[in-house]
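Researcher: Going back to the complex we discussed earlier. I've cleaned up the inputs and rechecked each line, so this should be the final set. Can you rerun the prediction on the complete assembly and write out the structure?
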Amino acid sequence: MSEPAPILSVRSVSKSFGAVRALDRASFDVLPGEVVALAGDNGAGKSTIIKAISGVISRDGGDILLDGKSVAFATPHEARDSGIETIYQDLSLADNLSIGANIFLGREPMRRAFGFLPVLDRRKMAEAARETMARLDFHVDRLDAPVAAFSGGQRQAVAIGRAIFWNARIVIMDEPTAALGVPEQRKVMSLIRSLKAEGKGVIFISHNLRDIFDVADRIVVFRRGENAGERRPAETTSDEIVRLMVGK
Amino acid sequence: MDRRSMMKFAGAAGAVAGLGALTSPARAAGKVTIALIPGLTADGFYVTMHKGAIAAAQALGVDLIYQGAAEWNVALEVPVLEAVVAKKPAAILIAPNDKQQLIAPLKKAFDAGIQIVCVDTFIGTGVFQTGSGDADFPVSYVASDNVLGGKMAAAALGKAIGGKGKVYVANVKPGISTTDQREQGFKEGMKAFPGAQVLETQFNDDDANKAAAQFQAVLGRAPDLAGVFGANLFSASGAANGAKQAGVAGKVKIAGFDAPESIVAQLKDGTFEMTIAQHPAEIGYFGLVAAYAKVTGNPVPTAIGTGFTVMTKANIDDPNVKKFLYSSK
Amino acid sequence: MTTAAVPAPSARISPLAQVARLRAWLFLILLAATFEVWTRIANGASFVLSVYNLQAIAIFASAPLMLGLGQTFVIISAGIDLSLGFVMGLASVVAAHAANFGLARLGMGPAEAALFGIAVGVLATVPAGLVNGWLIAVLKVPPFIGTLGMYGVSRGAAYLLAAGMTVAVNDDWYGAIGNGRLGPFPVLVLLTAVACVALHYVLSQTRFGQHVYAMGASKAAASRAGIDVRRLTMKIYLLSAVMGGVAGALYTGRFSAGAPQAGEPLLLDSIAAVVIGGASLFGGSGTIWGTVAGAFVIAVIQYGLVLVDVEPFWQFIAVGGIIIVSVLVDQTQRRFLGGRVDE
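Model: Rerun complete. Updated structure for the full complex:
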């Protein structure tokens, strides 16, 4: 084994909703600094496996290992506290707040004004925002502007920035480019590379095979809740991935 | 409606109540049921009116139904009316929430054989049993003569300010028959004081806070302001508070209308110079007696005006005055 | 920017947005200037440089402002609290009864009884606030409906407790809280000013305030960031009810009587103050100082038009016009910002 130990291991995880078997012994690993793309048609189980990892739903069988230890998160907050951050399509940002306030949302730093009055430490938030965004090659001139003033790709960067600021080790990105124009999609691709450079594990879900080939280290294909194959982009073609997805 | 018809009728009512001399077909068939529908339930004025009706009902052996809506709103009053009609009372006393919109629902009740008496407010023109128009079917209109009330306020306030200086009417909003009539009566009454000038009326939407600010603004423009007639409780207490905030309490005389128990302290400490108390219990009492008389086949005047009492610091402890405070007990 | 993969954001707050944020203060200045000229011509006196006018306007603005302060939090969180219309009256009646009880039965002096009345009156609003929060946060009832229900319940409770009348209080201390002065400053105005400063601090400088903004922008975002949105909702409606309680308890002192309908005519003015002050009914924006300006805009129009002896009905038109302009400015600003998102 020359590869480092995986941060996250999904082992034979199954999940049924009533009579529907949404996941059937699904397995894959995520290594540090690796981008794993999950591919599959609608209903292949991509969303279900993400929810099982991030604590939105519980699994029926199998195991999920974080740093080799079995974990079962009851809530998304538990998952986040353990370093698994999920960035949803709608970004989960408060549009009316600044980048710093979004990074710290729910965990705002306080300071004492006049030595006794607790107040929000806006300077600290702004500094953290500046530094974090710089790590993503994103240089902000107006730290007090609400994120609504930024473009879609820039807002993705804020969501990702929040994840890296809080030392997420696994970042799950669900269709991060779906709502974006082509230039913005490029920006997001470069953000994912930044995450990789930070040594994070990235789980990347997309319908767009070009994006997958562009950024993924490994492609895990699902079909009807089961593993349908695993390929490295350099060793496969989009035709093969599609064949795996549709099962022909 | 004039005072004499009321006095005459009061005598007749006494006979009815005291002697029970009239043989009534309704009574032969069992107890007479009469309903009272107030303009709104949550109001001291109607609470007191209800008590007057209870007193008359007990004296006459009538079953009294009391049902009303929580607020002044035709859309709420009509369903209450319909529910009451379904109980088939012999007569309904009602304070209609609107002059026009209650005509049809009340006509329906009347056509079903129920006698209608309007109390406090009226439908149509308020002139009944004329044989013309579509709203003359109610038996009688029993209410304070609000024009007279306004005149009494003018007479008392005019005297209190020595017959000179500026005054204005603090009113709720235009279009309410009772408060409009008070304002009209007040302005007529003030003509007896040629040295006094009546300024433009201020409407406050029944908001004492606004009435207070309006007082201060009027005083700001007319420092020789001598008195204010508040056409209802909140108009008057708002103006009085404005006087207090402006430091002219007692100097600018405030005349109020209506008499909840809280008025006593305000008369005594000079917040109010006077207040005009209606006699809502009389409205309830005479309304019920009129309805009963009609049901039992006796003649009834088509309009009954009830009186007023001018309450001041000087007379408020007199039991004959004090008894006209609106009381919930 | 030579090495940046992501270009620098060009996020600027446009001049239009700046104007929009300060619109209430601009309205206020414009109004003051207009009335200054007008009163000099009509009355031969200054409008702004008159202590008398300023005191009257400040007192006038205090009552709707007190309601508007709590309402600001509610509206920023994308809610609305209609129950304030009668929660205030309920507090007013309860405060009157409690002060009387303190005087008559508990042997309290006037000062103690006044404070006791205020405390009990304010406490009486706590259940209303909690039920509002519970309906909205737990049962997912839309705020408009939930608080309308509580509007009715508080109304009934207030009228029952007052037996359909007003409840007189004879307590000089209580009266002094409502009508007294400290130097040139009416006590009522000072108390309102303290409430403004305190709630400005809470809204702009605490986690609670920050979370209110976040919730107004996106409940999902707030929740995913680990904020307990249910608890937050309960707190917001509790704060609003308590501010209604303070307004009601002060009303009782000012008018020497508790009145069930004390707040009803103030409700819409208080919401108008928040909206004129720059808050959006869609949630996410608004400030305490904006609401202060909004309340003063309304008070100045209504006071000023009486002072210069204008036909009373123009007041409605003037206030209505300013609300419409405020909402239009808000809409324009939204469209403007909205256009940048997917540039």
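Model: Worth noting: Residues 1-11, 338-343 of chain C have pLDDT under 50 and may be disordered.
Researcher: Good, that matches what I expected from the previous run.
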